[in-house]
Amino acid sequence: MISRVLAGRTRIDPIVLGSALLLSMLGILFVASATAGGRLSGLATRQGIWVTAGVGLMFAAILIDYRTLLKVAFPIYCATLVPLVYLLVFGERIANVRSWIRFGGFQFQPAELAKVSTALLLAYLFENEEDKRLRPAAFVKLGAIVGVPFLLVFLQPDLGLALTMLPLAAVGLYFGGMPVKWWLVMFLILVLFCGAAWFLLKDYQKERIGTFLNPDKDLLGSGYQVRQSKIAVGSGGFFGKGFRSGTQSQLRFLPVQHTDFILAVIAEEWGFLGVILVLGLFAALLLRALTLAQAARDRGGVFLILALSGMIFFSVVINASMMIGLLPTTGIPLPFVSYGGSSVATTFLAIGLILGVEYRRFANA
Amino acid sequence: MFRARENRRELSRRVEIARIVVGSVFALLATAYWYVQIVRADYYFTLSENNRMRSVKITAPRGYIFDRNGVPLVENEPAYDLQLYRREAKNLAGSQDFAVSVLQLSPDQVRARVERALRYPEFVAVPIAENLRLEEVAAVEARAPEHPEFAVSVSQRRLYAHGIVAAHALGYLAEATAEQIKASPDAYAMGDWIGQKGIEATYEPLLTGINGERHVVVDSHGREIAEQGRTPAQPGQNLFTTLDLDLQRIAEDYFRERVGSVVAMDPRNGEILALVSSPAYDPNWFTRRVTGEEWSRLLSDPNHPLQNRAIQNTYSPGSTIKPFLAYGALAGGLVDPDARVFCPGHAEFFGRTFHCHKKEGHGWVNLRDAIKVSCDVYFYNLGRRLGIDRIAEIGKGFGFGGPTGVDLQFEKSGLVPSEEWALTRRRARWYPSETISVAIGQGPVLVTPLQLARALSGLVEAGRLPTPHLFLAAQDARTGTRLRYKAETKPGIEISPAKLQIVKNGMWAVLNEPGGTAYLSRVSSVDAGGKTGTAQVVGRESGLAAKGKYEDHAWFMGFAPVEDPQMVVAVFVENGGHGSSAAAPLAKALFERRFGKKEPEPSGAGLVRASDTRSAGPGAEHLR
Q1: What is the bridge-based pairing of β-strands B238-241 and B471-475?
Q2: CA distance B276 to B272
Q3: CB count in 10 Å sphere of residue A289
């Protein structure tokens, strides 16, 4: 099997693979910087292990025929929802949220896996849909596919994580060909829903949104994070302060800097150049993924790539915007780079599936 | 089943649009980062520097205060204070409970401190309690893992080495009030100590020094990582007072069970050698923890321990006024010192009978003997001859009725009545019979003990009134620059030596001739002169018990040696009874200590005692 992969190396896309690997290397490097000398030192090694495991997972995903996976997409989807239900019933709260399952020494966030399985089911759904425009039946199915895991995660309650489900719906609706009129109706409904949701949101969530709208209001509370992050990014300048020389990160002014705010560490220590490097790698990966999608053998493959890369795209944009206060802090990690096993493993799994579609472009099932 | 190449035109087109969207979004993100990192780089760099750099105050050690012989009166000692870092506190209520339980503080105090701190930024440490005992320091340190928000800081605490001794002269320190901080925001901040009353207040600018600063790098918890430089603190100046601890102690001991005041000073230059006001308080109370209860007890004490009786309480001078009137009349040529007045024990003036303190009368007395035996009848006559306005002139000539200019706050002026005063201030005309009372120091004439000591100085110095003061010299520890008090005298009533001699001789006789009112307190080792006084307490005449609260106040003022006076003493004992028995013995003790010919004590603990030789102690050596 391995020899087949190696023999057909032209069929494993080097741009996607290379970007992913480079980003995860950068991640290990800066997790090391962000956790140096503190009680968290050693996390870089763990991140290295996660990346290795993720790469293994990625190759496994390449080797398994995605067409087979699409056929069993629904059982897989249901299987990944089980832990989410389990969490709601038995979950232990970490930071007031039931989104983690513990296995011995490490924790896993099943919502990450659920995203991949949802993407798979979405691809299966759109495989036989017509090209021209989205049918109402497909619209309803799509809503159900994305809505169930969204609701389960939302109830954990982890709004940020739940929102990462929504790009899957957006991908389905857009690429499925939803008419413009529907978009307008959706938008109106969304506005009304937001108005209503304001009454349902928890206080801390309102506070975060309030902080986003007026970050100077509460400089030492939740506005503190955004402000410190902006200071870190801005003070990095063009060339940065040098690896492991960022005052904001090394003196721990940055909040959760090895996970959600890792990009601010890179921005401070490697400056604008570092940011361009990271954003450039993501842009290369995602634009290349779109090319692969166009070239995919079948609609299922196209939608699988689109859903998975849409997921990654959304996370990158939200995370990068968070760093400089363009969006409220929602606790969404930067794929490949932020510390965290669930995120790294599932992102590599997603890459594996994307590469798998390309790998089987000319195969006959 | 072949489904490859089904119709995907529309889908392909949507992907092309998606490609543009993705590219644009990344371009926008890059632009946003460019704005933050390139355009605004300087702004954020400054902020990041402010974040990590902190100035930490180095409190300048406050200058020590010594007596005139270099014996330390006020020093500093290390003290441990509890600080709260709010940013570290998970919940403030829990932190408050911890402080209350570990330190047995009152919950109200802790709450008040925390509330006050809410006005300041979160990274500013809040002083919660001062002067922790070592066990308490250990208790806080032991629970640091649970309560990282608390830290113990070491600071300098003021130590009044002799407790209540000279409390009123020295003053005390207290935390600067909001108004004091507002008045000089550069010099004082919340939690800083500032001199209140006494020398501590008057010479605050000399004593306080200039705080330094350390520039440190801190982490997000405010923990110090490294120091990047410092401006050292400039210590306050050491201050030498005119006080003589030996004399001060003798006076304090005398007043342990009495209420009153004593001032001993050098008539030549106004240097105050001893200043006592009793009851006193321990200034150390204020730098330790004064609870609200202690504070209110201090304030509600009927004897007002916080009041400095030497300058803040005014009393009738009683017979101590007599030598001044004699002096004034002689200097003005208004009395023949040899002319005699017959004292039958009483006299009639303006249709009213005035009694002499000696019922059976003194017989024929001249001016000198009138002073010696304190004959009231003689002075009734003298008073009538002078009239109230001339008496007022004499009184003002000795500095009564106005502040002495001593270097202490809140000095009272006292009162010297005159016809004008009666009309303008009292709004009731002056009755000539009142003049008769004023002539023996009763009626509406009021003086402070310090005024009396200063007036006596003026008398023995033939009219030159010295300005009393406690400041002797100061030395800047850093530059060595010395400051000395520039002694000044105010011109009073001039007199010829011969006439002065008559008054002084009368006062000498008070102590040294049988029949003198203070003969029992005569000083063996030195020729001393003096005058007793008894101030009637209002209400006594209304027939109430002549004991305790309504007992007369006792006065004694004295000077020595008679030929070349070097020390004057004014003693006031509230409800002490007669001046000769209640007040004069202290003056005698002070004169004996100062001029006594006893063998000098072996100097203990490396301190040179100043009892006999005026050789300087170790501190005074610096002044040479």
Answers
A1: antiparallel
A2: 11
A3: 27
At residue B542, the pLDDT reads: 43
For the stretch B159-201, pLDDT in tens is 999 999 999 999 998 888 888 888 887 778 777 888 989 999 9
* Any B CB within 8 A of A89 CB: no
- What whole-number distance in Å separates Cα of residue A57 and Cα of residue A171? 24
Write the secondary structure of B85-137 as one string of H (helix), E (strand) and C (coil).
EHHHCCCHHHHHHHHHHHHCCCHHHHHHHHHHHCCCCCCCEEEEECCCCHHHH
Distance CA B484, CA B451 (A): 23
* A219 in a structural domain: yes
Quick one: which of A282, A340, A338, A291 has its CA closest to A311?
A282
d(CA A228, CA A211): 14
pLDDT digits (tens, 9 = 90+) for A120-157: 999 999 988 877 888 889 999 999 999 999 999 888 87
Is the CB of B38 less than 8 angstroms away from the CB of A237?
yes
Task: Flag whether residue B14 sits within 8 Å of chain A, measured between CB atoms.
Answer: yes
Query: What's the complex ipTM?
Result: 0.91
Token look-up 């009162």 returns B415
Within a domain: residue A365?
no
For B25, nearest residue in chain A (alpha carbons): A317
Instruction: Please state the domain count of chain A.
Output: 1
Report DSSP state, residue B445. -
Specify the amino acid at residue A351. Answer: I
- Measured in angstroms, the CA of A82 and the nearest CA of chain B are apart by 33
**ω into B305 cis (within 30 of 0):** no
CA distance B561 to B548: 35
| Structure confidence at residue B145 (pLDDT) | 79
Instruction: Tell me which residue in A252, A267, A283 faces B220 most closely, judged by beta carbons.
Output: A252
User: Residue A364: inside a domain, yes or no?
Assistant: no
Closest-CA residue of B relative to A127 is B3
Q: Over the stretch A48-92, which tens digit does the pLDDT of each residue have?
A: 999 999 999 999 999 999 999 999 999 999 999 998 888 888 777
**DSSP assignment of A58-96:** HHHHHHS-HHHHHHTHHHHHHHHHHHHHHHHHHPPPBTT
Tokens of A167: 């790009």
How far is the C-alpha of B435 from the C-alpha of B370, rounded, in Å? 18
Q: Please state, in angstroms and rounded to a whole number, the distance separating the CA atoms of residues A206 and A197.
A: 10
The Cα B131–Cα B135 span in angstroms is 11
User: DSSP per residue over B519-544, as a string?
Assistant: GGG--SSS--EEEEEEEPPTTTTTT-
Q: Specify whether the backbone of A96 is left (phi greater than 0), alpha (psi in -120 to 50) or beta.
A: left
Range of the domain at A253: 2-359
> Which one of A174, A247, A364 makes the best mutation probe of the B interface by having the most chain B beta carbons within 10 Å?
A247
Give the residue from B61, B466, B58 showing the smallest Cα distance to B236: B61
Closest Cα to residue A123, out of A285, A286, A309?
A309
Please write the tens of the pLDDT for every residue from A14-51.
999 999 999 999 999 999 998 886 667 788 999 999 99
Contact A30, A274 (CB under 8 A): no
Q: CA–CA separation, A277 vs A334, rounded Å? A: 14
Residues of B involved in catalysis: 319
Say whether B154 sits in a helix, a strand or coil: strand
CA of B235 vs chain A CAs: smallest distance (Å):
34
Instruction: Report if residue A306 sits inside a domain.
Output: yes
DSSP, collapsed to helix, strand or coil, labels residue A20 as: helix
Task: Tell me the helices (H) and strands (E) count for chain B, helix number first.
Answer: 23, 23
With contact defined as beta carbons under 8 Å apart, do A5 and A59 qualify? yes
Residue A272 at interface with chain B, using a CB cutoff of 8 Å: yes
- Show Cβ contacts of residue B24 under 8 Å, excluding neighbours closer than 6 positions: none
What span, in angstroms and rounded, lies between the C-alpha atoms of B519 and B517?
6
